[in-house]
Amino acid sequence: MTILITGATGQLGNAVVRYVLDRTNEQVIVSVRDPKKFTLDGVEVRQGDFEKPETLDFRGADKLLIVSGEAPDTETRIQQHSNAVAKAVEAGVGHILYTSLTDADTSTVGVAAVHKATEEAIRATGIPYTFLRNGMYHENYLGVLAADTVAVSTKDGRIASAARDDYALAAAVALTTEGHENQTYELTGSTSWSFPELAGDRFRDVSDDDLLAAGLPPIVVDFFKAIREGVFAEVRPDLEKLIGRPSRPIAV
User: Fold this and answer.
1) Strand 129-134 relative to strand 95-101, pairing
2) Which residues contact 215 (CB under 8 A, 6 or more apart)?
3) pTM for this one?
């Protein structure tokens, strides 16, 4: 079996590669925009850019993990992912895995449109798929929680986040074990938390407009709004089941 992983110079993708190498002796290939940035041994490295589909080479892949891209706008990201999916079909890939978002098909979060469209494109290929719907990452909030004043618009909304490393392990498990065809995994932490709970006296309840006026990117404010509305509060069992243990709690 040959496993091919995109985005392997990114934090999530690189961690997935490391876990896969620990778990299997099967051939591992990575597709990265800049091969010079990939430094792990024992892996075939192919140069590939989602924006330039002619560079994407997924030939020989029994399992392909498409790590979602980070283009600045929805249309570009959807096109990038569509390019990757089309190349997977062209290459005869046997199984497509994709790092998606919690409740991608129904979520009100702005970026969910990217993941919904990508999931639909993958389903339309008829190739067996696995959707790894990652929830929030602990790492997204550690800086905020470490500040002297934790000013957010989440109120007491809860977040069932998990460590990036645990999401990476879940992807590696799906890549190296059988039985994940046509499955959608809703991946969350084993527990949830809130900003008032962790920040204590340092917590300040502000509005979305306050955060925008302070220069916070709209996409970040959109996620705070979603937290306030309970979008990421539900604890689900899929991550624990895949990695075989409770996820690591957030540490501040």
Assistant:
1) parallel
2) none
3) 0.96
